[in-house]
Amino acid sequence: MPGMGEIDKLQDDLDRPARRPRRGASPSDKPTLKTIAQMTGLAVTTISRALNNAPELAQETRERVQRIAAEIGYLPDRAALRLKTGRTNVISLVLEPDEHIYGFGTSLVTGITEALRGTAYHLVITPQFRNIAGIEPIRHIVRNRMADGVIFSKVEPFDERVKFLFDAGFPFVSHGRSQFAQAHAFVDFDNEAYASGAVERLAKRGCRKVAILLPESALTYSEHLRDGFVRAAEALQLDHEIAADVTLSSPTDAIRTHVIKRQRRPDPPDGYVCCSEISALAVIDGLAESGRIIGGTAHVVTKQATPLFAQFRPGAETVFEDFVGAGRRMGELLLLAIGGAPAETLHAIGAPHFAWPD
To answer: What Pfam families does UniProt report for this protein, alphabetically (predicted)?
Structure first.
């Protein structure tokens, strides 16, 4: 552990990032808080507050200091900052590459970045590789104090990541909910309402039998989708089925093949509820291959996260899920969690907006 003298020495000189060396200076001669103070005539403590957007300082002062810092290549030294304050000013997003939810990761990053704009925090993406247990990157972040808070998705009812972070007292926000009795910060979409509304729409379009393609059964939102789907179908006295042998994470060829085979068997569905654009494209291709006309002899309702889907496949009806907005809200809630806000106040559930064409 450093002695008090070493910590005191960091008081005015926490951060030493790389910049282009001045002529005659050594490569290690890097801009510091003192450098900016000398250039502006302001105190080092004022420079530090300005870089952290302290509201008590005039906006003109903050903008001037931040502009000069950018011009000379100043960036905070995370190791020194952590040594002095225990903070890293880093938010970690644990992200699994997922080709089945088009644009999901990019949208989350966009939203979280918007939430962090104007703060001292920076976003770092931690990969979640498919052959590694989901808890491992979380353990790595917490045990090595690589961030001040973490965001992750694909939550299970009794997710071990949630429990681990509970026990560690580490700030986090999840995209999706667990079923633990203890409250935790999360942002979610009302998937139960989505599935129910989608079935109602298919019934109105004249479908006599509806099917749904669910995510992996281990995920909490799979239960929500199933519950909404079954409840609405039973209330409307519609025949219904859960797509067997394939899930939202199945390869698109497997989904397409499943639909084609199912259409060849007796009593096939003529209405499908999909939970992502990619899976919907596979379902639509399977229906088309089977001789169905989308919007005529078969109908598809799917979530839509980007405006591109309708351009490729008109005929399917869509419900928008705002992943950018979800990312923004998760960033906002995580900042509150880091600040000590109680977990029971840190959650948001987006409601589906059904704007069906006439």
So the answer is: LacI, Peripla_BP_3
